[in-house]
Amino acid sequence: MIEQASPVVAAADGALPLFVELPFKWNYVESIIYVSLYVSLTAVLVSTLVSLPIAMLVGFSEFPGKGFLVALINTGMGFPSVVVGLIVLFAVSNQGPFGSLDLLFTTEAMILSQIVLAAPVITGVSLAAVTGVEDGVRDAAYAMGGTRLDVALVTIKEARYGIVTGILAGLGRAISEVGSVLIVGGNIARADGTSVTRTLTTAIQLEARQGRFELAMILGAVLVALVLLINGLVLRLGGSRI
Amino acid sequence: MTGHRGQQRAERRGQQRAERRGQRRQEPNRRVTDGLAVRNVSHGFDDTDVIEDVSLAVERGETVAIIGPSGTGKTTLLRLLSCFHRPDAGTVETDGADVWALSERDRLDVRRRIGMVFQEANLFETTVRRNVSYGQHVRRSWRDRLAQWFSRLRGGDASEAVAESLDLVGLADAGSRPVGSLSGGEAQRVSFARAIAYDPEFLLLDEPTSDLDPRNTAVIEDAIDTARTRGLGVAVATHDMNQAERVADRVAVLLGGRLIEVGPAERVFTNPEDPRARKFIEGELVY
């Protein structure tokens, strides 16, 4: 009778490697994840704070040029990220209006470019969600003695799933974006290999170009896992029906 | 002798009534009623008058049914009474005060004395209890709302008025149910409970049972009766003549945006003065 050795015994005997050698340094990947999350989450937070009031104002009021403004917001949703990067580059370069702030090749410049990209998405989707709330619901809030603010709050609450979708779409646009952060951030890493302005997307682009496909694939998987995790968390917290 | 004095008194009273009628015509700001009223109101949308020169009062403790064919302006009349729109002409009054001459704050106070039930339930997407307590919620200060929010986090979300209102429409145990789980009839009953939970003085009902089965209709009609006996002034817009006969003390017949007949329900249904009202009540096509 032949006895089969367990994997642990086999590893101890040297038949299998005890640790798999990873094709990257962990602190490198860790710093890239940190920069990616910091830049994208900050940009989405600021965008949401700006976009929601705009969506409410546009959704609830009638004014000349409203159609044009809505068209502008919708156009912004599909604005090419490279063009946004160029515009932000001009704005923060030495000769630009924000040149004195010395933002070029910093995470703050990357946040700025991602705000420009994410804000129209969050505004556009939130606007559609807010205007999609039935008039009858707003009428009911008014008829029960609600003030204009109460009616607005009810509308936001009724549109919450659409608004959350808009925020997630904005986050998706920000975190998966490569063109503008590459232009204004510069994809910089320190001498020890940790990231200064390198994000998951710019790192994937760099690693793939240098032929380190395993690392590029791993970073890609991390990016997808992060997006899934954030989506899952937000939907869970929101008690989603989406 | 006594008969002669009685005749004199009757003549004097008749003369006084005629004088009062004359004064009413001359004094545009005269107080119509101690209730909720529209006076000589006209209103339209997109340059088309929906209702024209309508005067109607709803007093506390009575139910007025506004009947008429679809599209005749019943909803617009109720929306004017509940201060949704400023009328193009005429006044909306509560206890004699023109509500559109009041400040926004005072008008809000007037609005908060009125409950309204729409043809559609228009419930918020949350639980039944949160819907029914909304009227009380908006009447709280922001500080109290915050306190209420913390109280709810600790599990305290009970209100006697909410429970009582739900009980009135036969949904005492439905407080924790999400509105998505309600049938159409239950949703409309919740809508009714929501409108009376904050103890309004007037209740306006816009075709409240048009989509309901007989059982749910009976529940709503019983609740209307209870509201009236509690002293609320109730106005029900309906095209269901039988319902109007069952619930109303007075009936107003609206046709083509004009009020063609107003009177006690019994008289209007048995002996209407206006031939068009008679035709409508008898089921003939009048539009």
What's this model, at a glance?
Chain A has 242 residues and is mainly α. Helix content of chain A is 69%, strand content 0%.
Helix-strand category of chain A: mainly alpha
Order of helices and strands of chain A: HHHHHHHHHHH
The percent range for helix content of chain A is: 55-70%
CATH topology term of chain B = Rossmann fold
Strand order of the largest sheet of chain B: 6-7-8-3-9-10
Task: Please identify the structural class of chain B as seen in this structure.
Answer: alpha/beta
Total helical segments of chain B: 12
Q: Could you say which overall geometry of chain A the principal axes of the C-alpha atoms support?
A: globular
Beta-strand content of chain A: under 5%
In round numbers, the mean pLDDT of chain A is: 87
* CATH class term of chain A: Mainly Alpha
Instruction: Domain count of chain A, please report it.
Output: 1
Return the domain count of chain B: 1
Quaternary structure type:
heterodimer
Stretches of chain A where pLDDT is under 50 for at least 5 consecutive residues are: 1-12
Q: What is the CATH superfamily label of chain A? A: MetI-like
State the end-to-end distance of chain B.
55 Å
Are there runs of chain B of 5+ residues with pLDDT below 50, and where? 20-32
N/C terminus separation of chain A: 57 Å
Q: Biggest interface pair, residues each?
A: A-B, 16 and 23 residues
Radius of gyration of chain A: 23 Å
Account of the 3D structure:
- The complex is a heterodimer of chains A (242) and B (287).
- Chain A has eleven helices and no strands.
- Chain A is globular.
- The longest helix of chain A has 35 residues, at 26-60.
- The relative contact order of chain A is 0.15.
- Chain A is mainly alpha-helical and 242 residues long.
- Chain A has a single domain (24-237), classed as Orthogonal Bundle (MetI-like fold).
- With 287 residues, chain B is an alpha/beta fold.
- Chain B has a single domain (33-281), classed as P-loop containing nucleotide triphosphate hydrolases (Rossmann fold, 3-Layer(aba) Sandwich), CATH 3.40.50.
- Chain B has twelve helices and ten strands.
- Chain B has a six-stranded mixed beta sheet with strand order 6-7-8-3-9-10, sandwiched between helices.
- In chain B, helix 7 packs across helix 8 (184-196) and helix 8 (184-196) runs parallel beside helix 9.
- Chain B is globular.
- Mean pLDDT of chain B is 86; it is low at 20-32.
- Chain B: One of its GO terms (molecular function) is phosphate transmembrane transporter activity.
- Chain B: This is Tungstate transport system ATP-binding protein.
- Chain B: Keywords: ATP-binding, Cell membrane, Membrane, Nucleotide-binding, Transport.
- Chain B: Residues 1-35 are annotated as: Disordered.
- Chain B: Residues 8-33 have a biased composition (Basic and acidic residues).
